[in-house]
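Hi all, posting the design record for the shared folder.

TITLE: backbone redesign
STEP: 1 of 1
STRUCTURE INPUT:
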């Protein structure tokens, strides 16, 4: 099945219910049941479940016992400890979890958070950075959300007598024989290493989730009991919030344990004791009267604000926001000031990122990299900030449905960039195949960072193109995007707030568990119009019983305008939509988010 913008893929079992296009809301199984059946899911964790039962205990994580013993010992003996994180939401949340929890266990401990500045030191640990920490007398570095590929810096730290614990989830490199190439740290905690419980890896846990497990294990070790003091149990709830937010922000698959972490975070977030997080929620438009926090608020409001700091400069204000403010008048004022300043940084980020996206799209099209014979886009420019090329890559992946690598060309002759990929193609494997061209790289199948000499970008493009062609040969000539459809639905069903809210029982939605997508067949819009600054947003209205109208919106549809208007002129439509709600003026109404359409029956 094909629409105007994409190929339509019907999930397994989605259309076995014999449901016709005129099926009414009361004569078929509920929408949520249809989605669960189409996705072949077990009923997922709901907001009402006691989700901590779904969280595996820390000892299920490889070497977390050794890491917790070392950290607890260093807290007791007064060692100067540095938590070295990353400058994105996940790394900041992971660093905050450990700083907050360690200071609660040992209030006088020397616990400092160090976040790299991508414009000064680049990602992760550096030789110069660890040597400077050694000179300052630091005895233990806990690298969270980084470190798995920092062989040189970790060796340098160990040579100076500094202990190193790596707590990371990024891809572990392999040596020439295919064996895992781990850095020479005292302990490496990684979810892809065999679990001591059953010898199997835990899977895809983010850095903040790993930090939560390490804190939990360290608290048990520090207090010498599984029965923790009440104050520590409360802090572990806060750590769960940060761990779950990191899971959502770092686009982890929202299945299994990740799903439970995200659910617990969203459920607990309105009652957080972190004054800075409450201020960030308010700055993002959340009010207690709104009730439950949905994952969209994290994906589109909280995470972009925090990520903007590291994309444009130092991310350290986020550590102050999450760790260093008291819940008193002065602390609340400072939290509001920080949250407002972070929002301003995010506005600047959005403006600059938009410019990069426009320029990159134009170049990809003019240089032939958007053609059917070019399964990867690789571009560089001196004016593209390296902190913004990652999200710009994601926008181009959405546009061209192929892997994208974008670089900032620096004055030092190095191009530093980011990569994003599509399902079924590991960009990390692609970079590995070109490792002799690259200065450095790291990441995982879906996203990575890399550095190459400016004069070798063209060579890298050729190497990545050859690798992508070898892996995506079946898709050359067919890089159209795809949309997975869960089930059919009648427009009358989706005009019901109760039915749309019922779908929330399947939330949270994200990577690996997308928001439900429905096919509405043979419907007649009673109104259509183009709106927005560029007139590229399509608005439609459909009539339902009782003289009511349900609205539908298709954002960024302008490039398909000719085909859309032709389909509308030809008569009734089939639409692929995601049910949503629109709250305005104190009223809540159904709204359908359109992702594609076509003339009915085609």
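Okay, here is what came back for every position:
SEQUENCE:
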């Amino acid at each position: 099945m094909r629409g105007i913008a994409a190929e339509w893929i019907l999930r397994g079992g989605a259309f076995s219910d014999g449901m016709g296009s005129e099926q009414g809301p009361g004569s078929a199984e509920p929408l949520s049941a249809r989605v669960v059946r189409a996705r072949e899911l077990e009923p997922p964790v709901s907001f009402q479940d006691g989700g901590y039962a779904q969280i595996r205990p820390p000892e299920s994580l490889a070497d977390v016992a050794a890491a917790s013993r070392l950290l607890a010992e260093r807290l007791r003996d007064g060692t100067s400890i540095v938590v070295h994180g990353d400058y994105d939401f996940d790394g900041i949340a992971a660093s905050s979890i450990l700083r907050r929890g360690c200071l609660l266990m040992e209030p006088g401990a020397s616990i400092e958070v160090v976040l790299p500045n991508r414009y000064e030191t680049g990602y992760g640990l550096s030789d110069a950075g660890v040597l400077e920490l050694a000179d300052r007398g630091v005895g233990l570095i806990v690298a969270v959300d980084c470190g798995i590929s920092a062989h040189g810096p970790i060796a340098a730290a160990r040579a100076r007598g500094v202990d190193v614990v790596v707590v990371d989830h990024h891809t572990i490199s392999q040596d020439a024989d295919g064996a895992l190439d781990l850095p020479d740290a005292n302990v490496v905690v990684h979810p892809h290493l065999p679990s001591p419980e059953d010898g199997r890896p835990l899977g895809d846990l983010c850095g903040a989730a790993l930090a939560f497990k390490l804190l939990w294990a360290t608290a048990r070790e520090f207090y010498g009991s599984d029965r923790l003091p009440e104050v520590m149990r409360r802090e572990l709830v806060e750590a769960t919030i940060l761990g779950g937010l990191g899971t959502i922000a770092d686009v982890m698959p929202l299945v299994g344990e990740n799903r439970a972490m995200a659910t617990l975070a969203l459920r607990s977030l309105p009652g957080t004791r972190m004054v800075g997080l409450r201020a960030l929620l308010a700055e993002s438009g959340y009010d207690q009267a709104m009730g439950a926090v949905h994952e969209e608020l994290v994906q589109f409001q909280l995470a972009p604000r925090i990520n903007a700091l590291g994309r444009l400069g130092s991310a350290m204000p986020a550590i102050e926001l999450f760790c260093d403010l008291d819940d008193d008048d002065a602390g609340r004022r400072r939290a509001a000031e920080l949250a407002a300043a972070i929002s301003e940084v995010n506005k600047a980020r959005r403006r600059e990122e938009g410019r990069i996206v426009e320029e990159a799209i134009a170049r990809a099209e003019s240089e032939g990299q958007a053609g059917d014979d070019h399964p990867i886009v690789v571009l560089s420019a001196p004016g593209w900030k390296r902190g913004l090329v990652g999200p710009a890559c994601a926008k181009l992946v959405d546009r061209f449905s192929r892997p994208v690598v974008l670089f900032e060309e620096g004055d030092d002759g190095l191009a530093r960039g980011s990569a994003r990929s599509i399902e079924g193609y590991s960009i990390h494997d692609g970079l590995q195949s070109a490792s002799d061209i690259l200065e450095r790289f790291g990441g995982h199948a879906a996203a990575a960072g890399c550095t190459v000499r400016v004069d070798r970008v063209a060579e890298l493009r050729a190497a990545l193109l050859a690798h992508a062609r070898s892996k995506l040969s079946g898709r050359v000539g067919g890089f159209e995007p795809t949309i997975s459809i869960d089930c059919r639905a009648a427009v009358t069903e989706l005009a019901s707030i109760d039915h749309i809210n019922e779908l929330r029982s399947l939330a949270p939605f994200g990577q690996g568990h997308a928001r439900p997508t429905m096919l509405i067949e043979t419907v007649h819009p009673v109104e259509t119009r183009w709106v927005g600054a560029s007139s590229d947003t399509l608005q439609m209205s459909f009539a339902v019983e009782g003289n009511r109208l349900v609205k539908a919106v298709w954002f960024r549809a302008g490039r398909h305008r000719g085909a859309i208007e032709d389909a509308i002129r030809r008569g009734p439509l089939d639409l692929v939509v995601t049910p949503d709600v629109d709250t305005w003026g104190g009223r809540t109404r159904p709204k359908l988010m359109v992702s594609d359409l076509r003339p009915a029956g085609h």
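COMMENT: The radius of gyration is 25 Å.
Let me know if anyone wants the other runs.
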